[in-house]
């Protein structure tokens, strides 16, 4: 199906037929006066005595020996086609017996040159296709010629509608520009710094429909919006990729499901960078390099974080609504990564179970990371569920898992819970490193005045001393009311 005519284009488009006056093609294919024409056609009685000079482009279809074997039919066909008196299909049909396969390819190359009637090349290819004379080599040649036209259009800053018009002409003559060719156009725009034109090109193609729009790849992963978003993400423009997909969706252009996955991936990367910047900022505030943030800046940070999570929810809902059942596991995996990077323990745990129920088995490391986050936030219910989930899988708590749990409690300042975890590790034969043991004891000393902390501290010191993990301890306490010091050696 042909594309509707774009505004301002002089290419005659039709939804039912691709028959157009070839003089109108000038809006789509750049035609310039060439300084070095590779195949001179001299209209005289001595046509048979002339031979084309060898050029770089001709070397692709003819060797030097084959160039000497070009027959008179080739020159007569080119001369007749250039007169534009009859349709190219009529000319070729009358001379088909006198033209070899190589000469027909050479006709394509001749009219594809700058300064020649490029429409003839498309008409010749169309005739070859209808006559079932397009082999793999001819198809490769025509695709190469078309790619050259596209590169010239983009390099000369021609209008985006001209590039789309050329793709439409190719589709009309059976060249069928698929995703790989449209992907090349996007890459040419993006790699040459014409980012706005790349976005405009994708929008134009999606509005018209029918060219390069179907999802590409045997695994169903691909698409115009997804590929453009991926290009943005690869250049580190994570939020631009997210906003691109959302903008396409809200404008009614219906991007492919794969684009939502790319946007979610970009969102996770943006969240990682944001969380990293926040940690650096907090460290600078703690060391006094930066002043404490006021309420306005704190509000901006909270709003930015809220917007990231809200965009993640929107994208995931669209992906699940429009995708197949197999896509849900990937969506929950991306959301899990997003909430994990944002430090949202309960939300991350929820996505972990959703991911598991969708048939995508989470890695053991994911359990450990979310366990540590929930422990740092003292979410005892989530911690119990995660540990129980590991037990159900038939894998008891490993030293690494308990270490994640221990460090999670330490990070959150829950030192009594950290001491209980340390004791549990000792009970099952795991011995944490010295720094982990020291961190627990130091944290407990800070909270000795809290209820239960003293008893916990003394029991842990005794346990560690009995195992020769620390030296003898002297515990002392001063009772102000009686001005009494109580000391005990453990």
From TrEMBL:
The domain of life for this entry's organism is: Eukaryota
Name used for this protein in its record: Pentatricopeptide repeat-containing protein
